[in-house]
Amino acid sequence: DGGITQSPKYLFRKEGQNVTLSCEQNLNHDAMYWYRQDPGQGLRLIYYSQIVNDFQKGDIAEGYSVSREKKESFPLTVTSAQKNPTAFYLCASSIGTITDTQYFGPGTRLTVL
Amino acid sequence: QKEVEQNSGPLSVPEGAIASLNCTYSDRGSQSFFWYRQYSGKSPELIMFIYSNGDKEDGRFTAQLNKASQYVSLLIRDSQPSDSATYLCAVSDNTDKLIFGTGTRLQVFP
């Protein structure tokens, strides 16, 4: 089965903690993305990567970090510097560029306690 | 700042009717247009994409693009209660990011 997996499905974080969200794809896609979705708002781009060992900031990168050491994996770390991290986090991938069709993983819902 | 606008709804239609969802965008250079469906608590799933002016049909779904007027629409024929969801419009150009609208909530009642 080809697809995008995200884990965990639900994540609870205490204030001051860093947490890492996992995203894996077996679609052989070059490009991967992280979005954040808040109620009543559209998806906002956090980071994206179009090739291994390279990534770019999106519109709301502050307080987040990523790595792209393997084509299949694009983990997102939510650091303690992110002031309001409670949100639904979505990972996506596409064949090549950011304008190609993007396919989404099931998402991780992060709640700060 | 590039924007994608959608009416938040809810748009309520009876079962069997045609649902018409609209989206306008600000960047005249936009090239690619996508419609995603998102059920409550779930991730977006692609319904259709369209690149050229005119209509594109796929089953009960028709995407319509008018670049001169800068709008893209999605028609759902023979609407079913299972179509009840939020529909996200996304727009990109060839040099920038995919911009998502806030979505239109569709309710199909029996």
Could you say which structural class the secondary elements and strand pairing of chain B correspond to? mainly beta
Number of strands of chain A: 11
Number of helices of chain A: 0
What share of residues are in beta strands of chain B?
A: over 45%
Alpha carbon gap, first and last residue of chain A: 35 Å
Biggest pleated-sheet summary of chain A: 7 strands, mixed
Shape call of chain A: globular
Which geometry of chain B do the CA atoms define?
A: globular
Question: Are there runs of chain A of 5+ residues with pLDDT below 50, and where?
Answer: none
Radius of gyration of chain B: 13 Å
Average pLDDT of chain B: 93
- Number of helical stretches of at least 4 residues of chain B: 0
Q: What does the secondary structure layout of this molecule look like, with pairings?
A:
The complex is a heterodimer of chains A (113) and B (110).
Chain A: E1 4-7, E2 10-13, E3 19-25, E4 31-37, E5 44-51, E6 54-57, E7 64-66, E8 76-78, E9 87-94, E10 103-104, E11 108-112
Parallel strand pairs in A: 2-11
Antiparallel strand pairs in A: 1-3, 3-8, 4-5, 4-9, 5-6, 7-8, 9-10, 9-11
Chain B: E1 4-5, E2 11-14, E3 19-25, E4 32-38, E5 45-50, E6 54-58, E7 61-66, E8 71-76, E9 85-92, E10 99-100, E11 104-109
Parallel strand pairs in B: 2-11
Antiparallel strand pairs in B: 1-3, 3-8, 4-5, 4-9, 6-7, 7-8, 9-10, 9-11
Structure notes:
The complex is a heterodimer of chains A (113) and B (110). Chain A is an all-beta fold and 113 residues long. Chain A has strands spanning 4-7, 10-13, 19-25, 31-37, 44-51, 54-57, 64-66, 76-78, 87-94, 103-104, 108-112. In chain A, strands 2, 4, 5, 6, 9, 10 and 11 form a seven-stranded mixed beta sheet that branches. In chain A, strands 1-3-8-7 form a four-stranded antiparallel beta sheet, with no helix packed on it. In chain A, a hairpin with a 2-residue loop joins β5 (44-51) and β6. The mean pLDDT of chain A is 92. Chain B has 110 residues and is mainly β. Chain B is built from no helices and eleven strands. In chain B, the strands form two sheets. In chain B, strands 2, 4, 5, 9, 10 and 11 form a six-stranded mixed beta sheet that branches. A five-stranded antiparallel beta sheet of chain B has the order 1-3-8-7-6, with no helix packed on it. Chain B is globular and about 45 Å long. Chain B starts with a strand and ends with a strand. The mean pLDDT of chain B is 93. The chains are: A mainly beta (113), B mainly beta (110).
